[in-house]
Amino acid sequence: MLDFNNILATPGADIQYFSGPATTTLLQWQTWRKPRGARWIYMIGVGGGGGGSTGAQTGTTGGGAAGGSSGGQTTVMIPAMFVPDVLYIQAGAGGAGSAGTVSGSFGSTGTPTYVTIEPVQNVPGPASTLLLANNGTVSATAPTTANGGLAPGAVAAATLAGMCLAGRGFYSLLAGQVGGAGGAANTTAPTVNLPITGLMVTAGSGGGGCTGGGSGGIIGPSGTPLGTEFFPSLNTTQGDNGTTGPIIRHFLMNYGGVGGYGALNAGNMPAFKGGDGSPGCGGGGAGGSTTSFSSLAKGGDGGPGFVYIITT
After folding, report:
1. Are 282 and 216 in contact (CB under 8 A)?
2. Are 17 and 251 in contact, with CB atoms under 8 Å apart?
């Protein structure tokens, strides 16, 4: 259990945070015990984010790679009388970004997040699951000489059929945000706007195309925000790795990794890696490259899944 925000001593509430491991094997259950005098229990869980992919390395131009999708998000508010004294948490692992050794290679998907009433050693059954949040996905289409990698497939929201015990309370089931596409040759990757569905995590943005050195996609608010104190816009500076996603104050929003810059032939700069995602977020895609360079760039790692359990 970790306390990123110095809130675990909040009067009148017991607040516990559980984060995902580097890998998930369904043997790494963490334990929560119901506090004495509990009345209501609120849970919010997010699956592990998907990893970013590697850009194309082709003749004279190359498209940037797509970023990974965020995990899905599930919240449950339930009377304490319907919750056993002990719960078991398996927070999802973030998907590893591509290794950056093969042109157009894909990152790895994240893994789901579970809160259950028993620590089984296989996929938990719906009848014993209180919370399920699905994992982030990765690009299924490699970038090419002209085009960037396409956005990953959709991250489906969990359903009550997969977490039957939540039916004793109130729940919200949100799909994850789809990762940003990579930039076409010589272009900047598309912007990833902050979600407007209630999701508290973002996808990773795609890497820029080359050989003119396209930037990784911006991650930030849509339109013209009134200020950037809480929700900044993140981008990649010329000839640089993608920015690692920050956690914005008290988990108001977790940012995904920003895509890396595409290779710059004129500046003799190779492709740059995608940034890593913060918890629950997708990793950024790597920039595109050409056969003039011997090296490729790694995709950013997806952020680990997490669970908050707040008891009053």
Report:
1. no
2. no
**Is cis: bond before 24, omega within 30 of 0?**
no
d(CA 89, CA 20): 9
Q: What whole-number distance in Å separates Cα of residue 239 and Cα of residue 218?
A: 15
Low-confidence residues in the chain, pLDDT < 50: 4, 7
286, 53 contact by CB (below 8 A): yes
**Cα–Cα dist 300/52, whole Å:** 5
Per-residue confidence (pLDDT) for residue 59, from 0 to 100? 85
Report the SS3 class of residue 44: strand
User: Alpha carbon of 293 to those of 54, 79, 109, 122, 225: distances in Å?
Assistant: 14, 60, 28, 44, 39
Q: How far is the C-alpha of 252 from the C-alpha of 230, rounded, in Å?
A: 8
Considering only CA atoms, which of 287, 285, 280 is closest in space to residue 300? 285
Which DSSP letter does residue 211 get?
A: B
As given in the structure block, the two tokens for residue 136 are 């982030």
Burial class (CB in 10 A: 0-12, 13-18, 19+), 301: buried
Beta strands at 289-290 and 247-248: parallel, antiparallel or unpaired: unpaired
Angstrom CA distances, 231 to 76, 201, 265, 293, stand at: 26, 12, 34, 36
Helix (H, G, I), strand (E, B) or coil at 81: helix
Residues with Cβ within 8 Å of residue 70, at least 6 apart in sequence = 46, 49, 50, 136, 155, 176, 177, 179, 199, 201, 202, 203, 256, 277, 280, 281, 282
